[in-house]
TrEMBL record:
Residues 12-126, 140-255 form the VOC domain. It comes from the Bacteria. Pfam families: Ble-like_N, Glyoxalase_6. This is VOC family protein. PROSITE patterns: VOC. CDD domains: SgaA_N_like. It comes from Streptomyces xanthii.
Amino acid sequence: MTEAAARHAPGTPCWVSLMVHDMAATQEFYRALFGWEFGPGPEQLGPYVRALLDGKEVAGIGQLPPDRQLPVAWTPYLASDDADATAESVRHCGGTVGVGPLDAGEAGRMAIGSDPEGAVFGIWQAAAHLGTGLTGVPGTVAWNELVTRETASVAKFYEAVFGYAEEAVVSADFDCLTLCLDDRPVASVQGVGHALPRDRGPHWMTYFEVADVDESVERVADLGGHVVRPPRDGAHGRVATVADPEGATFALVTSRERERDR
């Protein structure tokens, strides 16, 4: 278990947020799946709650404006010391900024942008709210991965904006690489070519740690979600891709270390 009490280094994924149509039903789904409780968050963008585990903040869920036909998707927020400067860099490097930068009360300053291929991400300049307060236990974010057509050009965008170093994963079968800060892996990029879902396009995928992927997948189905890709053994553990009742896709993973401990 890791408690994250310090400010996250710029470029570090520091928060995940989900905007939905039915907040009450969504909270019930994730409460039953991950054991989350909920507390109030800043409401500058409308109703918003923070998910809690052991009293620590792990994710956010907000209400989509009824007149906005936006996709329901988990969005990672990348830390910044200056959200305005980062937003300007996003534009300068070929991305777009769709929301902000704007203040989220006393919590911090934020923006929502997209890379040149269209994958959406957030920018978070922390004030009172530093971001994710707990990692390494079931129900917390384990990893963030950009799923895109090909890695080379879009990785250059993230390196230019956030200062990542690129670590290639040598494979004749896969187009993938790892984004690092100070030699520490913080996210990955997976190029899937024509296998990219037509209804989604390039997107960031959030991985949540669970104690048992197979049991959690069954629970997702029982709770009204559905299975996108069934459980399988991967490089870092057992993983499955699922969607909640509103269609937000995310991954469940039981890390190798957790499997060994069982």
